Amino acid sequence: MLTVDFDRLGIGPGAKVIDVGCGAGRHAFEAYRRGADVIAFDQDESELRSVETILRAMAENGEAPAAASAEAVAGDALSLPYADETFDCVIASEILEHVPHDDAAIAELIRVLKVGGTLAVSVPRWLPEKVCWLLSDEYHSNEGGHVRIYRASELRDKISGGGVRLTHSHHAHALHSPFWWLKCAVGVSNTDHPAVTTYHKLLVWDLMQRPKVTKVAESLLNPLVGKSVAMYFHKPRAVESPAKPGQSVASI
């Protein structure tokens, strides 16, 4: 289940991509399938072992072009171990809401992005997330849980302030909002509740079958109750300060 729209990223053979806070690796896997050289980056080493296993299996089964490469790397999003302007595309999906020092993380995402590259960021949308917080403390007040709820305009301004330009935004996963409201209402850890298991089966069916009825329903509902908001930013060529008399203005 992808939150980021890969058709907007321009990822293809030879592109250098980092998926920061990759979690289970869903976006890293898709980038690898499309022929990119991928870094799946996360601080959870146990999760990364599973990601690395799947990446290896994809290579062995021919699910990614032979020329592509993929690596799972453990580290801190506040101090990415890469030089400035390393990646053509930087993905940070559903991570910033977990990071206390999100400004520092955003600065790192922008730092390692090449000029002309694309930064894709997604976070939980304000309204669906607010309902979850109101229904359940357990949903967010756990170790590594969500530390803030973003308004889209706030996140846009935070990221744009780093010198990148917003090019598009959209909402995703409307069918997941009621599922999480239900889980929060009955208890997040109450995974055996009949209503939760029934709705979960619906989501799995939708994921596996992708029937037209749910695709249409979600597209109509996304603007209203999409669980996530995704934003896409372009890193433009910077321009130096105006030259003093007698000097020329150079772009970098």
Automatic annotation (TrEMBL):
GO terms for molecular function: S-adenosylmethionine-dependent methyltransferase activity. It comes from the Bacteria. InterPro entries: Erg6_SMT_methyltransf, Methyltransf_11, SAM-dependent_MTases_sf. The keyword Protein transport does not apply. Pfam families: Methyltransf_11. Transmembrane segments: none annotated. Keywords: Methyltransferase, Transferase. Residues 18-120 form the Methyltransferase type domain. This is Methyltransferase. It comes from Mycobacterium rhizamassiliense.
